[in-house]
Amino acid sequence: NEVCALSKISHPNIEKYMSHGEAQYVKKSGKLKEVSYIVLELCSKGSVFDYLMATDTGSGFGEPVAKYFMKQLLTGLQHCHSNGISHRDLKPENLLLDKEYNLKIADFGLAAAIQGHQCTSQVGSVRYMAPEIIMNQSYRGQSVDLFAVGVILFAMVSLQAPFESANPLDDIYKFIVGNK
Questions:
Q1: What is the pTM of this model?
Q2: Which of 50, 89, 125, 173 lies at a CB distance of 3.0 to 4.6 Å from 163, suitable for a disulfide?
């Protein structure tokens, strides 16, 4: 799935796909094991999550840093959507940083084609899931990606989630589900 998605897109804010294949490796027991591999661009500065957790402010990124990363995230995501790909698992852990601290959207393992159809799979990370996924409704991939971007932005500037859990029983999430 990741190879299929990444082979359709190429953008400075998306982790670059290099190649993939099959190989064997020797386990500690001495037995050979068949594995699949993907070679991707090196993002040597880790994830936005790691960078966020390492900030000394205790309150997340300041506005200039959040704007810098948000612009790159939205630019890369727009490229995905305009090429018919929805990520469906956006979270700070899947936003990597290259050696110059440029954001790269990564981990397209749950990506889906979005041309003209609704998704029904309940996929993604629960803290970033849109209400329609939690409530087992069909959804547009672009919409759930944008919901996750909003949660990411909130976390970037406040160092916390906008709600305790993505659950219709959570007090804050209940307002979101109720479109309030």
A1: 0.90
A2: 173
